[in-house]
């Protein structure tokens, strides 16, 4: 009777009742009657000779491959239109009609809404009348003798003076006997603007002049800064007063300004007729006519500002105006998004991720179970001050109209890459105290080979050093596999040549290495031992992934 001592479990005393003998390398221990087995003398007395065996390890081999590896990172992005325009009215007034609402499609040039233009219409009519008057005056001045022209010019001046007086009195009565605050503010603003420009010119002329001392330059600059601040103050005051005006005040003020213009024109015309030659009179008349024409064009342009048109074609994403409500120059009345071009997605990335990405890289946008390809078009080189992240924009190649601007999406991008790298399967890597290693085959012996690894995925890992392209890596797991252990190639397994690219098969095309066959007469493998091997293999794989 023989006893087999298993190297792994070191258990003696299992009788082989089944026929056949397991293939072993044996060492026969001559033990006399009563000799001790494992456990010391007397421990297994009377058992006879004991045969200690070691299972033969059949292995399969592979070589490293060369290829590319990437690892993805997910971000939260926001869909934005390729072009979006906020439409602001150029004047503030009450809305009288709105022709489009949110969700409507518009074309460039469509009339979006209108505002109350009664005051602007009145100014336009006054400018039209002034222009007509200037045309008549020019005809009269240039078509009669000097005396007639002088009488006509004087009559026009007196009429303009009377109109100016009436307009001033009406405006003063409206303000309870006080001068108009806006007109006074505008006058002070204009004076401050003139002073600011003069101070600026003086400083500009002196700042590069070597003959001017630094103290004098500083004084000139201070004077300019002070004049600029004063002008800004008066300008803000004018803006505030304009915003507070009602329609009646604006109408009276426009009438007064037009009366001023008419009076100044009449005065200039009278002075020219009274003290200049006919040639000078002709030039003055033409200038007056041109001035009236420009005033009319300006009034027409101002009148047109009370109608707001779409600057681009697209879809109205939001609307902030309603009939009978007040439209302000400070609030966007409409936001129009141009979706004729592809949409874009913006997302924020850390410095490492932003550095790993490049313009032209492709990312994947996911929403509602659908994936869309997008190409990175811009990467900000300055981090956002609030988040510390770097904004990145990518243009979707095609959305099919299923994505809406403003929605949140998942963006997947390759933030770690390895090009033309040496790759091996992660299943073939072991770890000990954080040191990765593999078993390589040479001359029938397994050798532990320490390696330095780089990035990895769930299937492959980059080998930075430790292996050569023709290194023969043992892919078979075995509990007894260790450095220096003798191994044999599995039946049908030939030593593979170095693979050129990822995915190459070290075995002959279309052939799988057969499972190792037990020699003739060997006992079948113990199912319990196979189960133990599988559990141990799973544990090693789990530890590898954790590492």
Please, could you describe this protein's structure?
The chain is α+β, with helices and mostly antiparallel strands. It is built from 8 helices and 26 strands. It has helices at 118-142, 146-174, 181-207, 214-244, 247-275, 278-304, 351-356, 527-546; strands at 3-6, 27-29, 50-53, 58-59, 61-62, 65-80, 83-87, 93-98, 105-106, 111-115, 307-309, 314-319, 326-327, 334-338, 344-349, 362-367, 370-379, 390-396, 408-425, 430-432, 435-442, 445-450, 452-456, 460-465, 473-474, 488-489. Strands 6-15-18-17-16-19 form a 6-stranded antiparallel barrel. Strands 7-14-12-9 form a 4-stranded antiparallel β-sheet, with no helix packed on it. Helix 2 (146-174) runs antiparallel to helix 5, helix 3 (181-207) runs antiparallel to helix 4 and helix 5 runs antiparallel to helix 6. The model is unreliable at 1-53 and 500-547 (pLDDT under 50).
Key traits:
alpha+beta, elongated, 4-stranded antiparallel beta sheet, 6-stranded antiparallel beta barrel, single chain, 547 residues, disordered C terminus
Layout of SSEs?
Elements: E1 3-6, E2 27-29, E3 50-53, E4 58-59, E5 61-62, E6 65-80, E7 83-87, E8 93-98, E9 105-106, E10 111-115, H1 118-142, H2 146-174, H3 181-207, H4 214-244, H5 247-275, H6 278-304, E11 307-309, E12 314-319, E13 326-327, E14 334-338, E15 344-349, H7 351-356, E16 362-367, E17 370-379, E18 390-396, E19 408-425, E20 430-432, E21 435-442, E22 445-450, E23 452-456, E24 460-465, E25 473-474, E26 488-489, H8 527-546
Parallel strand pairs: 1-3, 4-26
Antiparallel strand pairs: 2-3, 5-25, 6-15, 6-19, 7-14, 8-10, 8-13, 9-12, 10-11, 12-14, 15-18, 16-17, 16-19, 17-18, 19-24, 20-21, 21-22, 23-24
Helix pairs in contact: 1-2, 1-5, 1-6, 2-5, 3-4, 5-6
């Amino acid at each position: 009777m023989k006893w087999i001592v298993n190297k792994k479990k070191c258990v003696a005393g299992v009788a082989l009742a089944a026929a056949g003998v397991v293939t072993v390398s044996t060492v026969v221990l001559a033990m006399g009657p009563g000799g001790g087995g494992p456990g010391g003398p007397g421990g297994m007395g009377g058992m006879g000779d004991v045969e200690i065996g070691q299972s033969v390890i059949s292995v399969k081999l592979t070589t490293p491959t060369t290829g590319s590896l990437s690892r993805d990172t997910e971000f939260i992005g926001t869909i934005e239109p390729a072009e979006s325009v906020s439409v602001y009215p150029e004047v503030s007034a009450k809305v009288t009609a709105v022709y489009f609402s949110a969700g409507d499609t518009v074309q460039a040039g469509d009339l979006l809404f209108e505002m109350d233009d009664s005051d602007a219409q009145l100014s336009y009519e006054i400018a039209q009348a002034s222009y007509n008057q200037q045309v008549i005056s020019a005809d009269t001045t240039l078509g009669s003798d000097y005396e007639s022209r002088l009488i006509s010019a004087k009559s026009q001046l007196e009429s303009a003076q009377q109109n100016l007086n009436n307009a001033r009195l009406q405006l003063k009565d409206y303000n309870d006997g006080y001068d108009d605050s806006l007109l006074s503010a505008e006058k002070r603003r204009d004076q401050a603007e003139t002073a600011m420009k003069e101070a600026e010119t003086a400083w500009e002329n002196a700042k590069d002049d070597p003959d001017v001392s630094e103290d004098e330059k500083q004084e000139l600059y201070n004077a300019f800064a002070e004049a600029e601040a004063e002008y800004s103050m008066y300008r803000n005051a004018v803006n505030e007063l304009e915003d507070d005006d009602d329609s009646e005040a604006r109408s009276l003020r426009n009438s007064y300004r037009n009366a001023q213009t008419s009076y100044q024109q009449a005065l200039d015309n009278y002075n020219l007729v009274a003290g200049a030659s006919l040639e000078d009179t002709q030039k003055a008349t033409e200038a007056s006519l041109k001035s009236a024409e420009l005033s009319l064009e300006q009034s027409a342009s101002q009148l047109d500002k009370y109608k707001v048109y779409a600057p681009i074609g697209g879809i109205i994403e939001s609307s902030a105006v309603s009939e009978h409500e007040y439209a302000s120059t400070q609030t966007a009345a409409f936001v129009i998004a141009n979706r004729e071009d592809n949409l874009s997605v913006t997302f924020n990335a850390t410095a490492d991720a932003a550095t790993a990405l490049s313009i032209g890289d492709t990312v994947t946008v996911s929403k509602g179970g659908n994936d869309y390809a997008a190409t990175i078009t811009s990467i900000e080189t300055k981090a956002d001050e609030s988040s510390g992240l770097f904004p990145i924009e990518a243009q979707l190649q095609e959305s099919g109209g299923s994505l809406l601007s403003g929605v949140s999406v998942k963006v997947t991008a390759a933030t770690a890459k390895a090009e033309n790298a040496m790759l091996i399967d992660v299943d073939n890597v072991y770890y000990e105290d954080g040191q990765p290693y593999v078993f390589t085959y040479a001359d029938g012996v397994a050798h532990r080979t320490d390696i330095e690894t780089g990035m990895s995925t769930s299937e492959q890992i980059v080998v930075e050093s430790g292996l050569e392209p023709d290194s023969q890596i043992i892919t078979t797991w075995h509990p007894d596999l260790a450095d220096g252990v003798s191994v044999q190639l599995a039946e049908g397994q030939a030593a593979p040549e170095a693979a050129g690219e990822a995915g190459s098969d070290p075995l002959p095309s279309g052939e799988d290495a057969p499972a190792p066959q037990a020699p003739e007469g060997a006992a079948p493998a113990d199912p319990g031992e196979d189960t133990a091997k599988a559990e141990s293999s799973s544990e090693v794989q789990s530890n590898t992934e954790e590492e």
